[in-house]
Amino acid sequence: MPQKTADFSNSPAHLLRRCQQYAAELYAEEVGRSGVTPRQLTVLQAVEKNDGASQTDLVRITGIDRSTLADMIQRLLARDLLARKRMEEDARANAVRLTAKGLRAIKGVTGAAAKAEARLLETLPAGKRNEFVKAIRERRNDDFREKYRRVDILLIDDIQFIAGKERTQEE
């Protein structure tokens, strides 16, 4: 008996997850086996820009939840990419610093990570890339969608992604 498949083609949550998977694939292709994941690179770069920041500060800066960040920092400490010590002004807080090995790790993957992100954005028309990133950053997807609902004509590049579909979504 043939199985019916669910149509996830209009599910934002599903599509964002697929996009994240694609981003991870591109990162792996570009960065290779450096051992630094995209989220670890985010933490390392945040520490580089905010030397001596507390872990609480890094939660706010990166948007990574407290327990996940604490676990990530533990792994980065074990690999000698970060160093941590108690803050003098608040003995409950830890100041996090980049080690020389951590700085080398950042320098070793930053260019390749940027190339992976550029490849990810290549799927969008050049004039829409900054707008797309801004919509995600500011979580203002409604503004992005509304702008294109009001146009008289919309040209679509990469039409092959629509070809063969049973239906399209009408906005």
Summarize the structure.
The chain contains 7 helices and 3 strands, in the order H-H-E-H-H-E-E-H-H-H.
Describe the structure.
The chain contains 7 helices and 3 strands, in the order ααβααββααα. Helix 1 (12-31) crosses helix 5 (100-121) and helix 6 (129-137) packs across helix 7 (141-149). The chain has helices spanning 12-31, 38-49, 55-62, 66-78, 100-121, 129-137, 141-149, and strands at 53-54, 82-86, 94-98. With 171 residues, it is mostly helical. Residues 158-162 have low confidence and may be disordered.
Which segments are poorly predicted (pLDDT under 50) over 5 or more consecutive residues?
Answer: 158-162
State the distance separating the first and last CA atoms.
Answer: 35 Å
Sheet with the most strands: spatial strand order:
1-3-2
Rounded to the nearest angstrom, the radius of gyration is 21 Å
Helical segment count: 7
Percentage of helical residues?
40-55%
Choose one word for the global shape. elongated
Number of strands: 3
The ordered H/E elements are HHEHHEEHHH
Alpha-beta classification: mainly alpha
Largest sheet: 3 strands, antiparallel
Determine the strand fraction and express it as a percent band. 5-15%
Q: Provide the residue-averaged pLDDT.
A: 82
